[in-house]
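One example given next:
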Amino acid sequence: MAKMTRLPQPLPFADQVAIFSRLAEANPAPETELLFVNPFTLVVAVALSAQATDAGVNKATRGLFAAADNPQAMLDLGVEGVIEHIKTIGLFRQKARNVIALSQILVDDYGGEVPDSRAALMSLPGVGRKTANVVLSCVFGLPAQAVDTHIFRVGNRTHIAPGRDVDEVERAVEDNVPARFQHHAHHWLILHGRYICQARRPRCGICTIADLCPFEEKTT
């Protein structure tokens, strides 16, 4: 039987407050870098972003959302019409089918509106827990933590929210990050991981929380 990896203790409360206070001061109102015009287009954009960059998704969805920014318009466009707009994105055929299928469900079951529960969102094709949490946070203002590879890395590297998998890291963020910072926590952590605490060579020399971070292999 494989031995369980011992996780480090999360940073103490005072350090969590200090870290998120600095992140908040640097960027008081962080937002997703995915472009969207309403809740429906955010659902589609996040679903398309799996195994793709935000920049690549944004390039594809400019035309898509100009042509169809609601579920019925997307259904009118059809699978082939969606493919024409998103064929530069990985797995575009399956993603196009998912977009049409989720649009149909929204029309049939939710009156064309995006539901505001995680379970309902996760019942849509191509929408997992991370996508649902992004929508709950960005659209409905809930402190839902959408853990991606950036948050997973930052959470473990800094000990803000250590965990063996994304579910453990999500719970660790919820359990350890002070409530006053929960609403924007996942955006601060994603942006920090994307631009500062990068995978291969973290930019520790310009990191505003370097003195509070226990990561031993700091770069200069």
Observations:
- The mean pLDDT is 95.
